[in-house]
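Input record (one chain):
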Amino acid sequence: MSEAPSMPPDHPVAPELAEARERRAFFVKAPMRVAREVQKLLGLDELNYLHVAGQAHSDARSYFLYGALDEVASASIAATKWRDLLADPVDPAPSGENSEAARVHRLILDSTAADQAMWQRKLTELLIDLVLFVSSNEQPYYRCYLTVMALAAWEEQSRDLYEFYDCASRSDQLAVEDLRRDLDQILGSLELQRAWFLRSPTAVAWKAVGNQRLSSASYRYKLAHGAATDQVRLLLGGSYVPSYAHASRRLHWRVGGFARTATPQDLERGLTRVALLGLRAAELSLRLSGKATPETVKHYLEALAEPETAQHYAGAFRKAFDVGDVVRTVWGDFCQVMSSRKSSYGNTAHLGRYLGTRPHPAVDEDWYPSPSLSLVFSRKDLLPMLRRHLVSTGAAERDVAALDTLPTARVNEMLQRVFEDLSARGLLDSDGPLLRS
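The corresponding structure, as predicted from the sequence alone:
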C-alpha cells in the first residue's frame, strides 16, 4: 500500500503535520497487515472460505475468524480514503459560512463521517463477539453461532418471498428444515448459559424464527463491557449510545433530532478509532485461534501494547477533568466543572456550571459524560486568565493583586461575569479557540 503523498521539497511540512501523516499511515496499514498475517495461520484459503458454508466447515472457529479478519481488512481499505481527505484539508472559511463552498465542504465531511460510522458500528459489534467468544472458545459454539445466522438468513428470504410475491420456495423450506434439525442437534451438546449469542434457552424453540433467536446488541454490549480489558472497554465507547445509537443516526435517513455537522477533528478521531478497533479485533482473533504470533506483525502488536498507546486511548475516549476546570461541551457551551461521579461501568460524568450562554435559560448547571467535553483551561490556569482579563479591561493593580487572596467562590463568580461579558460582546468562539480574533 502506498503511503500518504509527500509535499514537494520546496514546501517543507510542519512537524505536527508530518507526525499526523505518519500516524494516519500507520493506522491504515497496521490493521490490514495484521489481519492478513493472522488469516494465513487459519488453514483456509479463498476457495474453501467462499464455497463452503460456515456451519458445514470442518473448522467452524477458523471460518468465523477468517470472516472477522476480512472485515478488519475492508475497514482499512475504506480508511485510505479518509487518510487522503485529511492529508489535504480544505478550509472554506474565507468563502463565508453561507457560501456554496462551505455547503459542499460540510457535505463532504458529513458523508465521510457516515462512512466512518458504519465501520465503527460493524467493528464494535465484531469486537464484542470476539470478546464474548473468549468464554466459549470451542468448536460447537462457533458452529451453533454460524448455524443460527444461516437459519435466520434462509428464514428471512422465505418470509420475504411469501409476503411480497405470495408464493413459497420449496428449496428454501427444505434448507430451513435441515438447518433447524442441525441446530436442534447442536444445542444438545452445549451449555446454553455459555451460548451468549442466543436470546434465551426458550428462544431457540421451533416457533422462534430469524433474529428472534439472537441476543440483543444491548445485552451483548453490557456483557462484553464486564468481560473486556480496560483498553477494549475504552474502544467500546463507554456506553451504548456512542457505540450504537450515534452510528445509527448517521447510517439511517432522518431529519430533525440531534444535528451536528462533522468536523475534521471528528474524522481524525473516527479514523483512529476504526484502526484501533481493527487492531484489537485482529489481536483477539489471533488469541482465539491459539496460534503463535507471526514475526511479521509482532512490532504492530507491541506498538498496540505500549504505554503511549494506552495514553492515547485515554486521551481520545476517556477524558479526565478536575473540579474547577473550564470545559467546552460538544454543543459549544462553556462550563466550569463543579463535581464528578463514576458509574458502575467505570464511566465518569461531570457536573458543569454554565459560563456565559446556556442551552436553556432555566438550567444553570447540568451533567455531561466526559467524552462529550473538551478542556479549555485547567483550574491552575484560572487565576492567570482572570489577571489577563482584568489587565485588558484597565483594572487597577491592587484589584489584580487581590485575586490571590479571594476565596474560591468569589473567584468563580468573577469567572462567570467574565464569560457573560465576553459572550455579550460576541467574543466567545464555540467551535475554535476560546476568543474570536
